[in-house]
Design a protein that fits this description.
Blueprint lengths: L1 H8 L3 H25 L5 H23 L1 E2 L4 E2 L4 H13 L2 H10 L1
Helix pairs in contact: 2-3, 2-4, 2-5, 3-4
C-alpha cells in the first residue's frame, strides 16, 4: 500500500523534480569526491568529506523544517516527499563510501 502512495506522489512534478535533482546531485557528488580522493595529500580528503556532507545537510533540513530551501515549497501536505527527503539524506553518504573504497 505504501509503495502505491510513493508511486502516486512521484506523479506530482515537484516530487519528481526533487528526486531527480537529488539523484543527479549524488552523481555530481561522486565525481567531485572521486577527483578529491585521487590525491595523496590530506587536505583534499578532508574537502571530500565536507563535500559529501552538503547533500545530507540539505535533505535533513527539508525533513526537519518541511520546506525545500531556495524555492520555499512547504511539505506539510506532502507526506511521501517528507519521508523521501529522509531516505535521500541517508543515501547521500553512498558516493563518499563508494569512492573511498574504489579510489584509495
Amino acid at each position: 500500500m505504501s509503495i502505491l502512495i510513493l508511486i502516486e506522489s512521484l506523479s506530482n512534478k515537484i516530487n519528481f523534480l526533487y528526486v531527480a535533482f537529488s539523484l543527479f546531485g549524488l552523481h555530481v557528488n561522486f565525481l567531485i569526491v572521486k577527483k578529491l580522493l585521487t590525491s595523496e595529500e590530506l587536505m583534499p580528503h578532508f574537502y571530500a568529506i565536507l563535500t559529501s556532507l552538503v547533500l545530507p545537510f540539505f535533505h535533513f533540513y527539508v525533513f526537519h523544517f518541511g520546506v525545500i530551501p531556495f524555492i520555499d515549497i512547504e511539505l506539510n501536505d506532502n507526506i511521501p516527499l517528507y519521508y523521501i527527503s529522509f531516505g535521500l539524506a541517508w543515501l547521500s553518504g553512498l558516493p563518499y563510501i563508494i569512492a573511498r573504497r574504489l579510489y584509495t
